[in-house]
Specification:
The protein has one domain: GSPII I/J protein-like (Pantoate--beta-alanine Ligase, Chain: A,domain 2, 2-Layer Sandwich), CATH 3.30.1300. It is built from 2 helices and 6 strands, in the order αβββαβββ.
Length: 126
């Protein structure tokens, strides 16, 4: 009788363990993708702080992290607020996923001024 109980419980336990391992992998992938997106946003903010004027458009690239290659796409579009762009950064785990516009692992939206913050005064742009 005990052997029958073990025979029933062991496959269920193995299935549960496999599910947990898959969940851990997904969480790890999404965490690393979030880091890539945040790094791209930080680079934008550094470029802006260095005096660069940001413009609307689309860009894409690759970044290495955690021993893997990650693929990102950034789009910037005007908003109803003058001088503000909406930047959307999407990160993919493969170039195939990015090329076919599959679901991104992570998507990050940020709103940034087109000109460096010091270039805009209360009376408008300098």
């Amino acid at each position: 009788m005990a052997l029958m109980i073990v025979g029933i419980a062991l496959p269920a336990l193995m299935f549960q363990l496999g599910t947990q391992l898959d969940s851990t992998r997904v969480i790890n992938d999404r965490t690393q993708a979030a880091w890539i997106a945040q790094n791209q946003l930080a680079l934008l903010q550094l470029r802006q702080a260095a005096g660069e004027t940001l413009s609307a458009g689309e860009w894409q690239g690759e970044s290495a992290n955690g021993g893997r290659q990650w693929y990102w796409r950034r789009s910037a579009e005007p908003t109803p607020a003058p001088g503000v762009l909406r930047h959307t950064i999407r990160v993919y785990d493969s170039s195939t996923a990015m090329a076919s516009a599959d679901q991104a692992l992570i998507s990050l939206d940020a709103y940034l001024l087109t000109s460096p913050p010091g270039a805009i005064s209360a009376g408008g742009a300098r």
